[in-house]
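ok, trying the design again with the full structure, not the truncated one.
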């Protein structure tokens, strides 16, 4: 079993023991309800040289707006621990909200431009919650390397920016999206889907694949690529928040120049569930 700690003080003491022995520490921040997408991040920090892997499980109230799914977010702690054990995680950090944000808490980390659009436009306080909690996790863990999923593309880019801007001595990995065999990106929120919604949800994968294939065959007009994806997604979903193409590096919506990469990003709602996904245009989307 991995060791289990609940406070930043205990976490720092445990990782300090690793560092004293010269063992590189890797961190995988999660909100639990673990799946193979999360566990791919454990493998990634190990492949990047971490001898010890810390996985945090914390459903972070700061990144949920009042009307969002904080109280019903899936919590599967015992199963999560079993998965961590199966993947050789050394230490699980599972603080409660009062330990993370004690009375009087009033300090936040905010990344500006890259958080204003897309998810940041739909969820205005979301990224400030993410960057604040990840900064705290970095301080309490002291990792050499930390892994994030490209599933949350804007989040990964935001955290890269934070680490660069604040001179945090941490290597940030952006790991490929782990998909189900029918293309749906793995997500803790997939548990919300009814069987019918679950089968309709693969439309995002089909839309991204259609746009990506067209791009690979030379199509460069954003409107055409977006229409190809939307044709697949619109009939299956109840509403679309966005289907858009941005510069893969800085996430701006502009004409992508030769030599730059284009990323298509999607957010759409099916029943009460909001799903996000994305793909690098021109690349084949990898299935399990
Ligand atoms: P979450 O528990 O949803 O906050 O996710 C924790 C981390 O796992 C984030 O860095 C996510 O981007 C990453 N992640 C979630 N789903 C996937 C997936 N299907 N493939 C790769 N990484 C993922």
């Amino acid at each position: 079993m991995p060791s289990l700690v609940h406070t930043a003080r205990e976490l720092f003491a445990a990782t300090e023991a690793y560092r004293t022995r010269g063992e590189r520490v890797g961190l995988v921040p999660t909100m639990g309800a673990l799946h193979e997408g999360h566990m791919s991040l454990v493998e990634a920090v190990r492949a990047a040289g971490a001898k010890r892997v810390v996985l945090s499980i914390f459903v972070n109230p700061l990144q949920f707006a009042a009307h969002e799914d904080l109280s019903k977010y899936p919590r599967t702690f015992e199963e999560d621990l079993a998965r961590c054990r199966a993947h050789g995680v050394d230490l699980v950090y599972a603080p409660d909200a009062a330990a993370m944000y004690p009375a009087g808490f009033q300090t936040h980390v905010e990344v500006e431009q890259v958080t204003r659009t897309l998810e940041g436009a739909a969820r205005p306080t979301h990224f400030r919650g993410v960057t604040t909690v990840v900064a705290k996790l970095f301080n309490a863990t002291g990792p050499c390397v930390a892994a994030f999923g490209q599933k949350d593309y804007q989040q990964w880019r935001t955290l890269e920016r934070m680490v660069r801007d604040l001179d945090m001595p941490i290597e940030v990995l952006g790991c490929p999206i782990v998909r189900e065999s029918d293309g749906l990106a793995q997500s803790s929120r997939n548990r919300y889907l009814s069987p019918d919604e679950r089968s309709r949800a693969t439309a995002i994968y089909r839309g991204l694949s259609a746009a990506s294939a067209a791009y690979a065959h030379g199509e460069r007009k954003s409107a055409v690529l977006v229409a190809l994806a939307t044709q697949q997604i619109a009939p299956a979903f109840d509403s679309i928040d966005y289907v858009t193409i941005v510069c893969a590096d800085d996430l701006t919506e502009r004409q992508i120049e030769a030599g730059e990469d284009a990323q298509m990003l999607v957010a759409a709602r099916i029943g009460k569930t909001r799903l996000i996904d994305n793909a690098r245009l021109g690349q084949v989307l990898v299935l399990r």
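Keeping the full-length input from now on. Strands lie at 3-5, 25-30, 52-57, 91-93, 145-149, 171-175, 239-247, 262-270, 273-280.
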